[in-house]
Amino acid sequence: MRISITDRCNLRCTYCMPEEGIEKVDRSEILREDEILRICRIATGLGIKKFKITGGEPLVRGCCKGLVRKIKELPGCEQVTMTTNGQLLAENLDELADAGIDGINISMDTLREDRYRQITRTGDLKRPLDAIDACMKRGIKTKINCLLQRGVNDDEITDLAEFALGRGIDIRFIELMPIGFADEDKCVGSDEVMDVLRRAYPEIEPDSSTHGNGPAVYYRVPGRSGGIGLISSIHGRFCSGCNRIRLTSMGFVKPCLCYDDGINLKPYLAGTDNELAEELSKAVQNKPKQHCFENVSAVDHHAMAEIGG
Ligand code: SAM
Ligand code: SF4
Fold first, then answer.
1. For a tag site, which of 59, 83, 117, 209 has the least CB within 10 Å?
2. Does 103 contact ligand 1 (Cβ within 6 A)?
3. Gap from CA of 232 to ligand 1 centroid (Å)
4. How far is the CA of 15 from the centre of ligand 2 (A)?
5. Do residues 51 and 4 make contact, with C-beta atoms less than 8 angstroms apart?
6. Is 126 helix (H, G, I), strand (E, B) or coil?
7. What backbone phi and psi angles, to 5 degrees, belong to 143?
């Protein structure tokens, strides 16, 4: 279960938010920490054992580290990981490690300072870079998420792969989805990424070892540690194996990133655990057969920050 604990963010990535930020949801509309925890407890009872904390930017919400600890302590919980832009990570790492975080995905689309600033509008590249080093020193499982955009950062595929392989960590190249403020014409397909990687690493080969729980297809370069993952959100049809369920910061459960529909758990929070469990199961059972990203008019254009990626 991916949980967006806040719709707020300290960056303004061009594909995700407008410069002025998205319309802020009133705090009273956002699930409280105890409500999130209750939903997680019920989820573990239904067999959902792995949680990803995301946002907006999860580290801008004060209760983030406490939540990681409390979810980890739930009976049946096997794993709590986080996706972050890394701006506030280095200074929060000790507490996250103490809380038992099992892995951190750091979103970083470029290795060039000026480009990073252009893509994120307000970000400082040194921060995710320092955070990656700090995670590695701490022995925390670290992955880099890189969203490719044509004409923006698609000339850095090899540099970014080399950055990750040089550190022995995984990097995942993600296809841009027509969600939020993304320009779908800028989507760089995984086939194209693979062509570039094959030229840079002729010996690259599929890696069948398990790197995570998600839809990335991994490759390895013999003699190097660290894997290169491709997340073909648009062109890959991994829907039949999709094990994701998403909880938005406002308590909406989305069976699929692509569609608008889902279940609002808010009214059920006043009810019993059994009622909540029933609604959550319904959301899982109603996962659509496949996404609809090739039909842009059918796509849910809610801000990605609200959904959590
Ligand atoms: N703020 C955190 C971060 O950036 O890692 C967590 C939330 S962010 C919405 C989660 C992930 O969604 C990021 O890796 C981001 O690159 C990705 N993302 C945002 N908009 C996207 C889009 N239109 N298509 C594909 N991925 C997207
Ligand atoms: Fe913030 Fe993440 Fe969206 Fe960038 S992708 S604006 S860091 S929520």
1. 209
2. no
3. 14
4. 8
5. no
6. helix
7. -130, 150
pLDDT digits (tens, 9 = 90+) for 174-196: 999 888 889 989 999 999 999 99
Structure tokens at 50: 């792995």
Beta strands in 55-185 (DSSP E): 79-84, 103-107, 142-147, 170-174
Cα separations (Å) of 159 from 14, 72, 232?
22, 35, 20
Sole residue written with tokens 């907006």: 56
Distance CA 162, CA 279 (A): 45
Cα-based distances in Å from 66 to 96, 135, 241:
9, 19, 31
Which residue's entry shows tokens 């406002």? 250
The arrangement of strands across the sheet holding 252-254 comes to 205-206, 217-220, 228-231, 170-174, 142-147, 103-107, 79-84, 50-54, 2-4, 246-247, 252-254, 263-264
Are residues 5 and 251 in contact, defined by beta-carbon separation less than 8 angstroms?
Answer: no
pLDDT reported for residue 160: 98
> Which pLDDT score is estimated for 185?
93
Ligand 1 neighbourhood includes 257 CB (under 6 angstroms): no
- C-alpha to C-alpha distance for 19 and 40, rounded to whole angstroms: 33
Residue in 149, 304, 306, 307 to alter for ligand 2 test, most ligand atoms within 8 A of Cβ:
304
The residue whose C-alpha atom lies closest to atom 12 belonging to ligand 1 is 309
Q: What angle separates helix 89-99 from helix 64-72, to the nearest 10 degrees?
A: 20
Q: How much is the pLDDT for 24?
A: 77
Query: Using CA atoms, how far apart are residues 296 and 309, in angstroms rounded to an integer?
Result: 17
Q: In sequence order, what are the residues at sequence separation of 6 or more whose Cβ sits closer than 8 angstroms to the Cβ of residue 259?
A: 288, 291, 292, 298, 299, 300
Arithmetic mean of pLDDT, 186-212: 93
243-269 in b/e form (b: 16+ CB < 10 A) is ebbbbbbbbbbbbbbbbeebbebeebb
